[in-house]
Amino acid sequence: MSDLRPRRITDAPGFAVAPILPWWAGGLGIGLVLIIAVALVQPIGVSTQYVVLDGVLLHQVLPEVANQSSYLSATAGGWTLATYEFFFVLGIPIGAGLASWATKRFSPRVLPGEWATRFGPIPGRRLAWSFIGGFLLLFGARFGGGCTSGHMISGVSQLAVSSLIFSAALFVSAIVTARWLYGDWGKR
To answer: Concatenated DSSP letters for 37-62?
Structure first.
């Protein structure tokens, strides 16, 4: 039988934290949120709300341009942010902030310490690579028709074939990317 107690996770040399909850409790929590979301509204997803925000903002500034885009028109619905999905996404950073404050684990650190080893001591360079990675992730999410929460949580739980393929591709690309970024990191 495996040990289900939280283990210490090392984030950078000299910086270790014990998880608040074991992995299985987090998984049960996500499952419960998904069940409630599906029962009350719809399955959860995050990446579409970036397009909705873009569409609503563009509609405020250049409505004729926004109206010409069938993608933005369909995605941004009634050109409003007053939706369940947008408030769900807005709640993610707010909830993370409250959790870090409540557990006294807030850190002003922007990027993992390991990135300094890979990209050097210049924070701007590390932030640029972080932005590039985030952009590629969001572009891939929109191109693939959903993000990790939409496909891997909602889609896989519904046994959607596209979500199973997405999840497999995500894991393969994550392993390749981690090997490229950190090289022998796993061997240390």
So the answer is: HHHHT-----THHHHHHHHHHHHHH-
Task: Give 137-148 as a DSSP string.
Answer: HHHHHHHTTS-I
List phi, psi (to 5°) of 17. Answer: -135, 145
Give yes or no for a contact between 161 and 168, defined as CB atoms under 8 angstroms apart: no
Indicate the pTM of the whole model.
0.66
DSSP state letter for 108 = -
- Mean pLDDT along residues 156-182: 86
Look at residue 110 in the predicted model and tell me its pLDDT.
Answer: 66
Give residue-wise pLDDT tens across range 103-151. 888 877 766 667 777 777 777 887 888 888 888 888 888 777 777 778 8
d(CA 142, CA 53): 14
The pair of three-digit structure tokens given for residue 83, joined into one six-digit string:
């939706």
Question: Residue type for 167, please?
Answer: S
Alpha helices in 62-122 (DSSP H): 63-68, 70-75, 84-102, 114-119
> Residue 16: what are its φ and ψ, rounded to 5°?
-130, 145
Distance from C-alpha of 153 to C-alpha of 161, rounded to nearest angstrom: 13
